[in-house]
Amino acid sequence: MSVERDMSAKEINQFMTCARVGRVGISLKDGPYVVPVGYGYSDNKIFFHTCNKGLKVKGIRENPKVCFEVDETLSDTSMYKSVIAFGTAEIIDEQNKMIPYLQKLIDKYRVPVEFDKYMSERNREKELESGSICVITPTKIAGKKFENRLL
Fold this sequence. Notes:
The protein is 30% helix and 48% strand. The protein has five helices and eight strands; from the N terminus they run E-H-E-E-E-E-H-E-E-H-H-H-E.
């Protein structure tokens, strides 16, 4: 039996917290642009680290209305989950405001260590100066899941 249904808010929060890759959709003058990102999700906000130059940041600065999508599927498509969020993106360049978000990303994608210890192995100032954090505040978020259950 195949069942597709809307995900509950609790299911969306759990999925958004645990999934590893999302896609941010940006409106450029020449058309849409979609790019995969490693991201974090906390306090109903989506965030990711990005270089502070390039098409993605330029597009967000010109039009902060974005779409963000996360999905997961089995190779035979007998099960999938998908969440789409629409919202407004903000680019954070101030280093002291970036650090809490960077710490959350370090915790998610690396062995959890404090930001300063993690950065001691790198050029801290260069890393902080070359990057930004993009924070998306969703205005609408919805999810679907599909399960194909054989009886």
